[in-house]
Hints:
Distance between the termini: 59 Å
Number of strands: 4
Order of helices and strands: HHHHHHHHEHEEHE
Number of domains: 2
Structural class: alpha+beta
Helix content: 55-70%
Number of helices: 10
Amino acid sequence: MAVALALYVFSWTAFLIPNGITAGGVTGMSTILNFAFGWHISHTYLILNAVLLIAGTIIMGKGFGFKTIYCILVSTVYFEFFPLIPWVSNIDDNLINSIVGGAMSACGIALVFTQGGSTGGIDIIALVINKYREVSPGRVFMVSDFLIISSVLFLPDKSLQDIVYGYVVTVAFSYTVDQLLTGSKQSVQMLIISSKYEEIANRLCFEMDKGVTAINALGWYKKSQSMMIMVVTRKDKMYEVMAAVKEIDNKSFFTVSTVMGVYGEGFEEFKAKRKNKKKIAA
């Protein structure tokens, strides 16, 4: 987590803050307050996080609180000393600085998330929401960050162009976080048509431990009855299934489509709770 946090803070101190670019989250709020009133970023960052940390600890548990405290303190120290590093981005185009800074900070945050930690602020809100609802962290970041970045308009020396750069950081950050955190969880649905459907189904089910569903199918040209095999698997396992099918029948026909969500044993847990219908009094 220390390495991940160094990557996160460095993206701010080397690419964003020196070029007057802000973004969302507590770090973005601290940067905006620094631009407006000259408040020290590390001090503001620590104070704002303390409030959200209490709520996050109550909801997520003590283990979450300990790791988050560690991340906040380490990030605060980094924000204090990283500006002393003489190197900052020498890229003249702030659009590129925004994209690089946003993507780099997302890599750091994603690595922290994989260790069960958080840098506080919006990260806490994202993790709490994701615990109870199937909402990606990237979406939470994007909505909250757009609101925070819009406050730049109240600064006298900032323009619409600065807001656009902030939005670019948010898009790059949210997209990268989602790809790193949920990319490996993406699933595909495969429909396989082959005359050797029984052999293929046995291979996928009993040797590769895949869930297999056989569906009655009718080849309309020859009016021949057959079975179509449906398999849902992780995206990174797709080519293993394709190779197994081709090994058995290299003339087989199959389609592959991305599915929005897969819930059940072996996949994701459905987190949304059923709403209780209110009884209408007679």
